[in-house]
Amino acid sequence: MRFFNLNTHGFYSRSFLLLRGIGWGLCGLFLVNACDTPESVQPYQGQNFIKLYGGNGIEEGMDLIALSDGGFVLTGSSTSTSNGGKDVYVVRTDNLGNVIWEKSYGGRGDDVGNSVLLGQNNSIYVCGEITQDTSDLPGTRDVYVLNLNLSDGSVIGEPKQYGNYKRDEFGSDVIEMSDGKFFITSTMAHQDTSKYYLIETDNNLDTLQFRSRYIGTEQVNNYATKTFENSLDMINPYVIFGSVQRIVNGNKSFWYRSFVYRSNGDATINPEFYGSETEDEICSDAFKTTDGGYILAGTSTVGNQTREMVVRLNPNREEVWKKTYNNSFNRNVKESGIIQTNDGGYLLSSTIELNDPKNHEISLLKLNAEGIEEWRKTYGSSQNDKGSKVVQLEDGSFVVVGTMGFEINPNSQTKMCLIKVNEHGDLVPLD
After folding, report:
1. How many helices (DSSP H) and strands (DSSP E) are in the chain?
2. What is the pLDDT of residues 361-396, one digit of tens each?
3. Chain-centre distance of CA 144, in angstroms?
C-alpha cells in the first residue's frame, strides 16, 4: 500500500491511495481530498507510474504513441472544456508522464479522438469523429481528422471532415503511405446496417477523386477496424481488417474479416473470414508482425459469455492459430488492443466487466508466440475503468492508455489514464 500522485497539469490534480494485490489481485483506488501545489505534482522517490489527465468533467483515453524522446502522445475525449458535449482531447507528455501540452478540439456536439499517428513530417495525426452542426440533421457524425504540431498541439491547415451528412461515419484509424498519402479506415452506420467507409487522400488530407467508398455485405453490419499498406501487391495496395455478419448453415453471426483492397478498381479482393457460425466474433484491433503476417484481436461471444479472441495470420492472411481466453473472474471482457512484443509474443489490453458496473478493471494479458497465456494482470480503481491501447518501450516495459473512474459527489467522473508496468506486468516507480 502506498500513496502516489496523479499529475493533471493545467486542470485539477488529486492524490490517490493505491491498494494493489499480487498476481490476479485488483487495484483499489480511492480519492483523497487534497489541494496540490506545483511542488506536490513533481515525481518523488518510490512514486508509481500512474497518471491521470483531465479537468472537472469526464475524460476517456483511446490511443497513444511513444515518441523518440521517451514521451507520449495520448488521444481520447474530454467534456471539461466543451460546450456541453465531448471534445477531441490530445495530451503530449514527457517520459515521466508530466504534461508538456494538452488541447481540446471540435464543435458543440460529441467529438472523439480514436487513434493517433506520428507522421513522416514529425507532426501528429488524430482520427476520430465529429458531430455535424446542421439544423436539418442534428447529431449525425462525420469522420474527423486533425493534423497537429508536435511542439504545441496547434492545428496545421484546416481540420478535415469526411462523410455523407445524412449518415453516421466513425473514423477508427489513419495511416500514412510510403508515398506520403493517407488512408482512413472508418465505418458508416445508416438505419439498421453499417458498411466500411474507406477514404484515400493526398498528402494534405484532401480526398482523391473517386477514392472514397462505402463497401461491405449488403443488408447486414460491417465494421472496419484497421488498414495496412500491402507491400506484397502494389496494384492492390491495401489490406483491410474488420468484422462482418454472415449467414452460414442458417446461422447469422459476426466473423473477423480481411481482404485486399484496390480503391480505383475492384474494391474487395480475396476476402478471408475467421470465426465460427455459432459465435459472434468482433475484431477490434490488428497488428502487423515482424514476419509480415498479422495478429488480430477482439471478442467472441457465446450466449451471455464474452471472451477475448486472438487470431494469428501468415503474410497471405491464412489462419495459423485461433484462441479464446478465460479469466479467473469468469466475467465478460471488452477487447481494445494488441501488439507483438519484443520476445515474439503478444500483449492484449482489454476491460474485464465485473458484476458491479462501477468496478470494471483494466487487464493486460501476455501471450507467447503460440498464443499460450503467460500472465494476466489487472489494474484500476474502485470505480469503472477501461483499458484501451498499449505500447512496448525499448527497455521491455509496457505503457497502457485507458480510462480510470473516481467519484466526486454528486457526479461520478472518469479521467484519461497512463499506466506503466514492467515486462512482468508489475507497476513500476517513476524514478
Report:
1. 0, 31
2. 999 999 999 999 999 999 988 888 999 999 999 999
3. 16
What's the pLDDT tens digit per position in 234-285?
788 999 999 999 989 888 999 999 999 988 877 788 999 999 999 999 999 9
Q: For the chain, list the domains and their CATH numbers.
A: 50-421 (2.130.10.10)
Name the residue type at position 226.
K
Segment (H or E) for 172: strand 168-176
The pLDDT tens digits of the residues spanning 395-421 come to 999 999 999 987 654 566 899 999 999
Query: How many Cα atoms are found within 13 Å in the side-chain-facing hemisphere of 367?
Result: 24
In whole angstroms, give the CA distance from residue 391 to residue 399.
Answer: 5
Cβ distance 327 to 333 under 8 Å?
yes
* Contact assessment for residue 254 and residue 280, using Cβ atoms and an 8 Å cutoff: yes
| Count of alpha carbons within 13 angstroms of residue 377, beta-carbon side | 19
> For 81-145, what is the HEC assignment?
CCCCCCEEEEEEECCCCCEEEEEEECCCCCCEEEEEEECCCCCEEEEEEEECCCCCCCCCEEEEE
- All three cell numbers of 413, joined, read 467522473
* Strands 160-162, 141-148: pairing kind: antiparallel
Q: Grid coordinates in use for 293?
A: 503476417
Residues in Cβ contact with 196 at an 8 Å cutoff, skipping those fewer than 6 apart: 185, 186, 187, 188, 213, 214, 215, 216, 222, 223, 224, 240, 242
**pLDDT (tens digit, 9 = 90+) per residue, 298-340?**
999 999 999 999 999 999 999 999 999 999 888 999 988 999 9
Q: What is the pLDDT of residues 128-143, one digit of tens each?
A: 999 987 655 566 899 9
Query: pTM (2 decimals)?
Result: 0.88
